Batch of 2 targets.
Target 1
Amino acid sequence: MRLDPQKAYPYPVIRATHDDFHGESFSAEPQFILEEARVKLTIDYELSSKPIQREIEAGKATYLSVVSCRNTFFHQVYRSDKAKENDIFIDIDQLKGAVKVESFVYILEKTSIESININKEFLNNSANAKSIFDYSKGNIIAQDNEYSFYIDIDLFKPLSSIFILEVSEDLSHGEWEVFSDTDKVVIKVARNIKKIEESLTNYKLGKSILINSIYFAAVMHLINQIKGDEGIIDQYLWARVVDLRMTLKDCNIEHDSYSIASKLMDYPFSRLENEE
Amino acid sequence: MSIQFLKQSTLDQLYSNVSKNLERYKNGDFEDLITRDVCLVSDKLSIEIDKLNSINGNYKNDVNNALLMSEAIVALSPHVARDKRLWTYLTHTYLFKYTRERWPFPDEKHGEDRMISHVIDHYFVKGERGFERNNAASRLWWVAFMCKRAKNIDLEKALKAVFLVQDPIVQLLGRPTSAISTNTFNSVLEKMVNSLDGDQAFLKDRFSYNHPFLKELSYLGGHNLLDALTIEESREALGLIDKKILSKVKAKPIESEVSDIKEDSDVSQEGSSASTTDKAEEVIFEEKDRLLRDKLVNFDKNVISKKFPNTDIYEKVLSNHLLSCYLAYKPRNHSDFMKLPVAIRLGIAEDERQYIDEICQIIDEHM
């Protein structure tokens, strides 16, 4: 929190940590949804104070949320006079790591708030004094706790990271099978294939051969799975990774699977060029 | 040309082999190690190789190099620009020679640890602030990116203000409220540009003006929602801070002086109140350190000032303020010096930084 939550303001502020207003509360917990290339934040402001709500309706105060990301220096201020249905969209490209959301009710022009819940410490001591406090433009009259979420999508992680290769004694010489009903894709292989794979990973040409054989076929299989049921994207991590990669590389799902796989894997056949 | 990144495994390997590869960093290259196989390629982004290859020279070329960097990778998003694999790839390939030229290797006599630390600072990205501060490639891009956020300021002019003296921009980026709040940052940048065109006091008077000003701004941010200010309101707030800072000048005893310096050491500390003393004017020291002070003053007079007679008084490695700090902290070697608060270490003229070790040696021999 950049505004010190322990700080005593020279005016009453509705905060969870202070009793400047007795029995009043303000909360604005955002809901985050990660979409293909953007984050959707929905903020519902829950403000109990009727007098302050009336100030917002009159345009003298506003709900205000600050969304910021220290890593990317992203900083946006959103104002609203609506308590509900506040949707904010931010491109993922603008964010990395922790993203903070801080919400307030902010005074837009000089005004007086009358509320029996204002802590007497802020009021004139005389017995007949009204429970009124004057606020200036720029004052904060309500402040919620800070919320944060984390964006760390590795846009360039190789597709091979979604595979696990396992030996299956049930498989005969040369056989292999793909299982995609878990977050990572498991390629079960006969023992002799595992030995071949281990020897190929030891040198550059070998790795390229692997990518162009078993992994290329497996990626094609996964694309066919997504083509058959796009709902799978919400079920498994591998499907989300493939889908995100397709979005980033402008792949059209209507194209043939071999063509999409080739693009997704950075045209792997060309890796064999100039290899010894 | 498509942009390339090191694979994470390659980055990890390079990082763990810095000691083994020191000779490559000093005199060789990584052409045989960094091949296409150890990199990832993205066809979503491209680099203009000609512009990247034009980046060269030392700190005097920072402005031009930052412009070239921002033109070389135009579509780079902040998300991708926070990827260590990209910048480490560049400092080990296209910008390898530039990195060596911009950040010359420390003398071997200072030991291997010092050289390893030098490589990690400038060829890799160490810590989150390493992107803007130390990595030879990313710092150029990030500073240009920050300056471009101020649409009303000419980019080249903003970069000239930022790179005139390193310290102000580092101070500003180290303060979360001021750096992130776009209008506040842009107003401070405007102030830096105006200072460049004027008396340059805001850029150069670190301890009597710049640091107290930014501390006061942080203090203001602790009570007020700087985020919500318009650009006009931000300018107005800065004007009020200016009046407050420029009207306060008072002398302090050494305890208070050192305490101010310590407060300055954590630039991310928000909410401290400002203090002002014209530290450029006098050296503060205890009587028992008079002889050491004389040795250091003579070293400056007979060696440093003879070689670099035109260094700005505020940027001298033995400026009056730094002399007070050496006498207070007495760093006896480079690693002692590196333990000094960052606010003390920054802002020294690049040409004069080479004398830090000799100053420490004079202190060590005196002790």
Note: Residues 51 and 318 of chain B are 38 Å apart (CA to CA).
Target 2
Amino acid sequence: MKFSLNIQYKTLYLLLSLLIISCSKDDPEPINEEELITTVQLTFKSPGITDQTVRWQEGSNNSDIISLAANTQYEVEIIFLDESDPSDIEDITEEVKEEADEHQVFYQFSQLNISLGQSSSDTLDSNQNPLYVNSLWNTSEAGSGTVRVYLIHEPVTKSSSTRDGFAGETDVTVDFPINIE
Amino acid sequence: MLLKFFIFPLIFLLCLNSIEAQNCNIKISGIIKDLHDSSPIFGAVVSINGSDTLTQTAEDGLYFFNQICPGKLIFVVEHSNCNSVQREVIVSENTTLNFTLEHHINELEEIIISDNVVKSLKGSAKESRLNSDQINKYSSQSLADALNTLAGVSTLKTGNSVAKPMIHGMYGSRVGIVANGIRLQDQEWGADHAPTIDLNGFENIQLVKGASALKYGGDTPGGTIVLSPSKLILKDSLFGQTIINASENGRGGSVSTKLMKTTSDGYYLSSQFSGKQFGDLQAPEYILSNTGVKQMNISMKLGRSKILSGWEVNYSRFQNEIGILRGAHIGNIQDLLRALKNDIPLRIDPFTYLINSPKQEGVHQNFHFTYFNQISNKVKWQFDYNYQANNRKEFDVRRGIPASIPAIDLKLQTHNLLVNLKWNTIFSLDYEWGVNGIIQDNYSNPNTGVKRLIPDYLKYQMGSYFVGAYSPSNSFSWDWGIRIDQNTWDVQKFYDVSDWEERNYAGLFPDFEVQQFGNKLLVNPKLNFLTLAAQTGISVILGEQFSTNLTYVLSQRSPNASELFSDGLHHSLATLEFGSLSLKKEISNKILLNFSKHKGRFKGTLEPYVSKISNYIFIGPTGIEQTIRGAFPVWQYDTTNASFWGVDAGIDFAFSEQLSFDIDASYTYAQDLINSQPLISIPPFNSSQILKYTSPKKQFDFELVNHFVTFQNRFPEMNFTVNTLNDGLIIEELVDISTPPSSYQSIDFNFSIYFNLIKQSTSSISFIVNNMTQTKYRDYLNRMRFYADDIGRNFQLQFIFSY
């Protein structure tokens, strides 16, 4: 009995020391957050008018006001940026274009009469549906309102006139006030 | 095993013939009982030393000799599963001699769980246990599904395959799961983390309501679920069992097989394998896309059990992959609103076995070594070392990132050491004392590209307990116990500098700050919690028919990793969830009562309970955070005072040997006392009724089960609004995530045929239909209720072969 108890204590001791050795911890490394979008930027171009760029940036919560002229056609380009690390700004738009089948840019206007058209420089998905990364906006009468900008991930359909119709998940939804003069 | 039944009666018959016709006619009779629960022992051999006179006990434990000569005799009582007992008696007249045997000494299972406190519950209602037949029935499902059949247990689900047991309205860290004598450490803090354990590896599941299993921890006010493996039989034998299930819903099935080899010198070796696969499940009207599941488990054990000492080495590995309903993956609260407004999921794809993101993958490995030694008749000690490695990965639908990279990748390793000393003194006093040391290491893989939801940490726990039981007679017992634990956290976590300042942690915990990396701050919280648990209970049996017990439990729980540190977006409800460093330990006082009556064909139990919890930790909405995906509700862990009460009740009535009717019901009331509102996710009143017919020779039976769940009218209001843009107008819309779904009823049917492939082991074929009437329903405790109906009808065939 004495002998076997001795062995038991040795086993116990061995296991306890294993337990203690197995515990040491390195400092964790900071995580480089991927697939993050922090900034939405819209650029408006129209012949004879100075280019206009507006931004919505995470954290600032205030978007710039878009000023457009009445009865004018604008070529509008949207880009998505990851500016979480100011020293390494990433353009997410390229990813969106590469995965055109899984994405859709969508604009909704409130209290404004702007008609949306396809731009020849837009990216098309494999079924020739426009992604609306580049689009044509035709303004009519003067007024003020809002545009809501969406980036939709994995929409169920690529052609809808309402946000609900696309389904999928919302990656971006930001509002910009618009003034048409 | 088989042998015993034939050979002993044979010897007995032979012996009877050889008894010489002396002038001896003293009658000696008695009963052989189990030392632990006083149950009669069948098949014990009683012999008189120095003569060839022997007999065997009948099923009621009775034995008798009727032609014994007067004089000094030595009686020997032996049983294959027990220590033998000898007693010297001077016989001069007809005598009654009763013996008690330590029946459990060879059964490792009992040795592990037969601590005194649990023992006192053994005699109580049938509700507190699941036997192997009941477990087998749920072979293709989960632990929580099997437990759900017990009154007072509900299931908190995320879809059909992620199911957590809930006892008296509590789940997660408030419910302990104990397997093979050690707490399961599987990131139980998450509401959408199912226990990583395969119920096929166990033969007995015991539910301990209240925190009375102090040996395993004192921090589970909900209760403890104790899973035990099959009993050992110390004979040369080889036996096994295979269960095959085939289901129509999900077009899948499961196979589970186990084999056990035992030898008469105490060695045993067993192995178990089970696997299952299901494709997309089906609601009554549509396919639940991406709800497939794959699971594979193996376990092996080798041990030797001698009468006075024994050891066992046990290894098991559990692996699963669970698809999460595709339509439930949302980007923001407008998406959530759209899903709520739609009657059917927003995405329904054709049936497939493929499991895509969102999904969960888990691997749980468990290594266990145990050794016990009965130092003397009265003292036994046991040593357990357990190592568990739990790896959990969650995959989200992501952009520009390979589908093989998870969004959450956590590895939790736990070392658990338990030394237990058990002794008994005269006057039926039993004591148990032990120390329990736990070291836990959590590692969050940084390669996910997503902020860590749970940080890296080391947690040390040192606990000690002392429990005792006094059972002077079979009809009265009193037990009590205390446990004290010291928990120490050493955490390394990155906070967004803005969050750290906004929560005033900079002012409260300046010592934790380590280093700033851009807009991230590395902090090293060191937290200590000292917890105390205590319990006491009395059990009284009043006559043959009526028994009652009263238990008081004090439990204290230190906050878990999620409550302290969680940090990020929860995709299933589009909420930002944050832990709180300021949380204090949760203190629960609970009183449980049990009344059982068993009279003839009637069996009834009534179990009311009441508890009061101070510093009850919960998560609730605190504000809105504006992000590029729109406004998100922010939910933060906080504490309140809460009160719970409820009743579990059950009635079994046998109309005849063949026909029986069971009814179970439970009700839980839970209130947040500070905010004067009901607590969230509390099971509504529910009841199940079972009508069962068993054929006279038990060749077949059939069962009709009706489940009824009412509308939960007590719920906190957690709604918020979102502005949507429709037809050129921006309007505020209410997102109702609070109102529970309506009541429902579903009917299951079960038909089984029994036969013997070999003698003494029953095999069966069953035909099972769940949700027979294709009831379309949503359950309040299923987090997928916002997105889709629960699963529809399922036809299932089950084969159980025992050999």
Note: The CA atoms of residues 95 and 304 of chain B lie 40 Å apart.
